[in-house]
């Protein structure tokens, strides 16, 4: 069966059809997938009944994998390359540390000096209704700004933290996170290292702009996030079991909506492909 691609929305995304990720991919198949990944920002692979090892092996085709030292509480105890995104409680009955993962607009690992190239999230247990994820196209967000705004934001850096907006039930985690991951300044406009295109690099984890007060920064940050997440730039993914969604963290942002019943189980596992160095510590 040959590969084909179906757009997921006008703004971004493509479904890859005719592929079984349990089988090795030829170089030519991988090249087609990689090209479409760069063009569309997100790829969806449906009905992939694969093992953890196969998930990791496919992810490695995109580059070196993160072992999640910056998120130690959330990684799988036996597979450091896998990050758990789950509401299944811990063995001692405590709520899962990753229950609220991703519930604000962000790009993965932006709070580190090597933000991620891309992430591959596998749906393992999906609630019957909801639990959706939204993605937005940050090239479009940049391209549709006025020339005046582009010129103003071009030299700016924004301070990214690992802090969550949705209140975590375990404040211990938050304390640990701020110790492991001190704030990092990242450019507000980043050039994608493979396509050479400019993309907006901002999100809800941004606390302030470098050289400005929080009060001064907030209206601009809020405007840029609102602009970047206009409905026409967005794709909303409704998960099915055995979906794998791959996204390019260098030109997209995403948010987990948390729109499902409290009693339902939601369990996904993610690999994170390392990107190129970006940003600097503030002191
Ligand atoms: O759970 C989701 O839908 C998305 C999780 C997420 O934001 C992430 O893995 O970075």
Structure summary, number of beta strands:
16
The 3D shape can be described as: globular
Number of domains: 1
Mean pLDDT: 95
Report the uncertain regions.
Answer: none
Ligands, deduplicated: 2-oxoglutaric acid
State the secondary-structure class. alpha+beta
Query: Whole-number radius of gyration?
Result: 18 Å
Quick one: CATH class? Alpha Beta
Topology-level CATH name: Double-stranded beta-helix
Strand proportion, as a percent range, falls in 25-35%
CATH architectural label: 4-Layer Sandwich
In spatial order, strands of the major sheet run 1-2-3-13-5-15-4
Major sheet? 7 strands, mixed
Question: Going by CATH, what is the homologous superfamily?
Answer: Clavaminate synthase-like
Terminal Cα span: 55 Å
Number of helices: 6
Percent of residues in helices: 10-25%
Written as H for each helix and E for each strand, in order along the chain, the element string is: EEHEHEEEHHEHEEEEHEEEEE
GO molecular function, one term: taurine dioxygenase activity
GO cellular component, one term: cytoplasm
Family: Belongs to the TfdA dioxygenase family.
Keywords: Dioxygenase, Iron, Metal-binding, Oxidoreductase
Kindly describe this structure.
- Keywords: Dioxygenase, Iron, Metal-binding, Oxidoreductase.
- The protein has one domain: Clavaminate synthase-like (Double-stranded beta-helix, 4-Layer Sandwich), CATH 3.60.130.10.
- The protein is 22% helix and 26% strand.
- The protein contains six helices and 16 strands.
- Strands 1-2-3-13-5-15-4 form a seven-stranded mixed beta sheet, covered by helices on one side. Strands 11-7-8-16 form a four-stranded antiparallel beta sheet. A three-stranded antiparallel beta sheet has the order 12-6-14.
- A hairpin with a 6-residue loop joins strand 9 and strand 10.
- The protein is globular, with a radius of gyration of 18 Å.
- The mean pLDDT is 95.
- The structure holds 2-oxoglutaric acid.
- The site of 2-oxoglutaric acid has 11 residues, from strand 5, strand 14 and strand 15.
């Amino acid at each position: 069966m040959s590969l084909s691609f179906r757009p997921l929305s006008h703004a971004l995304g493509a479904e890859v059809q005719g592929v079984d990720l349990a089988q090795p991919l030829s170089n030519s198949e991988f090249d087609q997938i990689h090209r479409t990944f760069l063009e569309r920002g997100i790829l969806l692979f449906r009905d992939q009944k694969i093992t953890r090892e196969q998930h990791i092996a496919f992810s490695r085709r995109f580059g070196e994998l993160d072992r999640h030292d910056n998120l130690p509480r959330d990684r799988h105890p036996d597979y450091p390359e896998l990050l758990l995104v789950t509401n299944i409680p811990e063995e001692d009955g405590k709520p899962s540390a990753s229950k609220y993962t991703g519930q604000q607009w962000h790009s993965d690992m932006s709070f580190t000096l090597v933000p991620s190239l891309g992430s591959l999230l596998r749906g393992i247990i999906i609630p019957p209704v909801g639990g959706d994820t939204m993605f937005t196209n940050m090239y479009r967000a940049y391209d549709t700004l006025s020339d005046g705004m582009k010129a103003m934001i071009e030299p700016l850096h924004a301070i990214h933290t690992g802090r969550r907006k949705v209140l975590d039930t375990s404040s211990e985690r938050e304390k640990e996170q701020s110790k492991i991951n001190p704030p990092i300044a990242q450019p507000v406009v980043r050039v994608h290292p493979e396509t050479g295109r400019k993309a907006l690099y901002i999100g809800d984890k941004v606390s302030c702009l470098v050289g400005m007060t929080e009060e001064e920064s907030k209206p601009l940050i809020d405007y840029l996030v609102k602009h970047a997440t206009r409905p026409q730039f967005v794709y909303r993914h409704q998960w099915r079991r055995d979906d794998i969604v791959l996204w390019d963290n260098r030109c997209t942002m995403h948010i987990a909506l948390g729109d499902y019943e409290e009693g339902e189980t939601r369990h996904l596992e993610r690999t994170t492909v390392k990107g190129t160095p970006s940003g600097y510590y503030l002191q």
